[in-house]
Design a protein that fits this description.
475 residues, Rossmann fold, inorganic pyrophosphatase (n-terminal core), 18 strands
């Protein structure tokens, strides 16, 4: 394909020649004879001519398939250049903006030359330049913490309780970055993995999570937390050597190094960038774990996703074992989980696209969020609120499609005063002692609990934040 570029700046000509030449047959037209001569001597195919004259283009031997790139510096109108190209029979024309943009002038040009396409030099350069710069800054940061951890004897990579795929994968990735093995850096948690799909992941990828106690934190020379911040351990961990997390930054602890990016969909995305920045070999096992983590933390890009999550996914995909991921995902559906789904479908209430259900007593907590996630897949369901009792705790899981009111606000509104309640816009959880629940809402059982939850949802979704405040004052 032939490209005829009408330019004014030498730097633009040299750059375009450099980037376009391997793929296109490129010629340049420039007004200044000395510039044309100099660049011609440098081996660039260039001619001097008046770009506002039709015969300049006729002389350039154009055809209907010639592509024109017209540099617009913003200093002088390119109207007459475009007119001459059109009169000479040119049809494929791009305006390359290299100077300050003038939206009004651009609109006028568009109106006069409807076939015109725009390109902005800074927009074209920005993504690559920004990626390169941030990669090099990440590299410096990673090298610093690598050095800081290098000579430590005992290293702990600490995860949150009941570690999920993102925590497990992040632990593995960080151990890789620290160039350590399971004997020289342990991946630990105060409470181990319980969910069946997470256990399956840990088994299939051979990830050992060692049980640790807060009392043993002092035995480690260096501690890093991933997918969690030290405040989570309730004052038992005042400082950490390294914190890598994608949850909003919390106060109340100190860290020698930290990389917290709350706009990322997973901690594994941050660690993919760390691994890429320092060019560490990523094993199939680590790539598989991280790919699975990104998929699961973002619900396969349906929630809280950033462009960088997609980029990390694309980067990891060819390095990972996709068949293994399918197997791990299969583990989510178990006979016992289906029993709770079944209970919910029998006793649940569907009203105004809100599905509420009380599933009674369950031996493990994960049946509750699992059921909440399950019913969110139904057509016409925008919110799910599932409650259950585990031991002496009344637990509520809330899910929504993210574009309505805040799920975190819902649990705080009803349960914040009697237990722990919190979460994000699209998912939230409350854990309250059964006794406190009964004290506040009455000694409800079975369908009465379902009805009460459905009522709470209705009230919450129909009140404005102002009503809530008024009621709080009245109480
Ligand atoms: Mn996470």
């Amino acid at each position: 394909m032939r490209v005829l570029a009408i330019c004014q700046d030498e730097l633009v000509i040299r750059s375009l020649d450099e980037v376009l030449l391997p793929s296109f047959d490129v010629d340049f037209i420039v007004e200044s004879r000395p510039v044309a001569r100099r660049l011609h001597d440098a081996g660039i195919q260039i001619m001097a001519g008046d770009p506002r004259r039709v015969d300049t283009y006729l002389k350039a031997d154009i055809s209907p398939s010639t592509c024109f790139i017209v540099e617009n510096t913003g200093r002088r109108s390119v109207r007459r250049i475009l007119g001459a190209i059109l009169d000479a029979g040119g049809t494929l024309t791009y305006v390359l903006h290299t100077g300050p943009r003038n939206p009004k002038a651009a609109d006028e040009l568009k109106a006069e030359f409807p076939g015109l396409a725009d390109m902005d030099l800074s927009e074209l350069i920005r993504p690559t330049l920004v990626t390169e710069l941030s990669r090099s800054m990440t590299r410096a940061r990673v090298q610093q913490y690598q050095r800081y951890f290098a000579d430590a004897d005992r290293v702990l990579i600490l995860l949150h309780n009941d570690p999920d795929p993102d925590a497990l994968a992040s632990g593995l990735a960080l151990r890789n970055l620290l160039r350590r093995t399971k004997t020289t850096a342990i991946i630990g948690a105060v409470q181990g993995v319980t969910r069946p799909e997470n256990l399956r992941m840990a088994n299939m990828l051979d990830i050992h999570v060692e049980p640790v106690t807060p009392a043993s934190f002092g035995e480690f020379e260096r501690i890093a937390t991933v997918d969690v911040q030290p405040h989570y351990f309730g004052g038992m961990l005042q400082r950490a050597d390294l914190v890598i997390d994608h949850h909003p930054e919390q106060p109340g602890y100190s860290a020698v190094f930290k990389d917290i990016r709350a706009d990322y969909g997973s901690t594994s995305t941050i660690l993919t960038e760390h691994l890429r920045a320092v060019d560490v070999n990523i094993s199939e096992r680590t790539a598989t774990a991280m790919l699975y983590a990104i998929k699961s933390d973002t619900l396969f890009f349906a929630r809280h996703t950033n462009r960088v999550d997609l980029e990390a996914f694309t980067f990891l995909y060819p390095l990972a074992d996709a068949a293994l991921i399918r197997k791990m995902e299969g583990a989510e559906i178990t006979m016992e989980r289906l029993r709770y789904v079944n209970r919910a479908s029998q006793d649940g209430v569907m009203k105004e696209q809100i599905f509420s259900a009380f599933i009674g007593e369950a031996p493990r907590e994960d049946f509750i969020p699992y059921t909440a996630d399950f019913f969110l897949q139904l057509e016409d369901v925008k919110w799910t609120i599932i409650a259950g009792v585990v031991g002496t705790s009344f637990i509520v899981s809330v899910r929504n499609l993210g574009y309505s009111r805040n799920a975190g606000e819902f649990v705080k509104r009803w349960f914040g005063d009697i237990g722990s309640a919190g979460g994000h816009r699209a998912m939230a959880k409350a854990v309250v002692p059964v006794a406190k629940f009964q004290e506040k809402f009455g000694a409800l059982e079975g369908p009465a609990v379902t009805a009460r939850i459905a009522e709470m949802a209705e009230t919450f979704l129909h009140e404005s934040p102002g009503d809530k405040k008024r009621e709080a004052v009245a109480r």
